[in-house]
Amino acid sequence: MNHRERVLMALRHQEPDRVPVDLGGIDATSINGRAYQRLKDRLGIVGGRNRIHHPILDIAIVEDAVLEWAGADCRPVLFEGRAYRPGELFDGTPCEYPINWNPSRQADGAEVVVIDRSGTTLRRAPGAAFYFFDRAPLADAESVADIERRAIEVEQYDDWGFWDGDWAAMEAEGRRLLETTDYLVTGNFSGHIFAGGEILRGYETFLLDLVERPAMAQALMELLTEHQIARFDRYVARVGPFVQVINVSDDLGGQDAPLISPRMYRSLVKPYHARLFGHMKEKWGGYLLMHSDGAVAPFIPDLIEIGVDILNPVQYTAGGMDLADLKSRYGRDLCFWGGGCDTQHVLPLGSPLDVRDAVKASIDALAPGGGFVFAQIQIIQPETPPENLVAMYEAVGEFGGYIG
């Protein structure tokens, strides 16, 4: 059984020869550049490049030697800059950044990046921070008219400032992966709507909009939906023929509970998700993966209803996200892509034995009957010990086989 067949069989809710594995097939299953370099050093892999394709989160492009060691079954088509420059991660680790990514150091030690069309600061990293944080360009909007007047700032949302706009290169990479490899090919579309509102307005402001100013929230989500539909049409025309899974990202859950009530989701947010997801499924015939962190169990029936085939990252440390319960209730209709090991506590802070036990428990809960692709929960964080990553993939090899 080859890699693509293995994943597709699991996505059809059948048991392949072993549990499929993903490392870096989508942004949320990848690895921070510092952790990546430490893993390569631990494995004795010399040479190659520590290329950071997503510098906002310092996500590394995982090279074939590491993917083959991990037993990964997927390969991504990325919004990747085609030209890179030498750089350093926050701790001095050498890396390469997209040439369009040029943060400037401020007097207080912070770094800022100017990448929007008006020349204003879009992202800022405080001194010694791991990640850049988005500013909220529409935080000062006071009416629906204000939102609509500034549609240009909505339209450039999810327009990666570090990407060079080379659709032909993305199309060529998708074709190469489909026609010359046997890996499942994944598309990283993202397509935020709810999270787009939070980032454009500011998290607290947007959540208050939903309660106190719903017309403003709806106006913003309407513009975001129209933008994402148009963006998807450009995307699918070039990348769609070559990918079997495309992701959308819209975090709906907090650590202990959903960020909004199911009732509010159904009345205010779900209609926009339904429009975007329905359009995507109409235009393209593959599997739709929804990335949403946190406690999202109350939304799962709604997500299934509007076309979601796969849930990621399956954050079992969040409230109401018990893996056995999720598998029992939704495993016939939904595939789980993630949930393999906790990246908040176990993977960065536990022992290799803790990691092994966590991986076994996740496989025991999610693997029966197929419908499971192994990945850790979210991006592997910078300080994750490489020996714990070795333990994780060794445990997948030990416990991930199907009998018969």
Describe the structure.
With 404 residues, the chain is an alpha/beta fold. The protein has a single domain (3-28, 70-78, 137-399), classed as Alpha-Beta Barrel (TIM Barrel). It is built from 15 helices and 15 strands. It has a seven-stranded parallel beta sheet. A four-stranded antiparallel beta sheet has the order 6-7-8-9, with no helix packed on it. The protein has a two-stranded antiparallel ribbon with strand order 1-2. Helix 2 crosses helix 15 (386-399). 48% of the residues are buried. Mean pLDDT is 92; it is low at 117-121.
Low-confidence stretches: 117-121
Largest sheet: 7 strands, parallel
**What is the chain-wise order of helices and strands?**
HHEEHEEEEEEEHHHEHHHEHEHEHEHHEH
By CATH, the topology is TIM Barrel
| Percentage beta strand | 5-15%
> What is the annotated CATH architecture?
Alpha-Beta Barrel
Q: Write down the domain tally.
A: 1
CATH class: Alpha Beta
Determine the fraction of residues in helical runs and give it as a percent range.
40-55%
**Computed structural class:** alpha/beta
The tally of strands reads 15
Rg over CA atoms, rounded to whole Å, is: 20 Å
Whole-number mean pLDDT: 92
Shape: globular
CA(first)-CA(last) distance: 14 Å
- Read across the widest sheet, the strand sequence of neighbours is 3-10-11-12-13-14-15
Question: How many alpha or pi helices?
Answer: 15
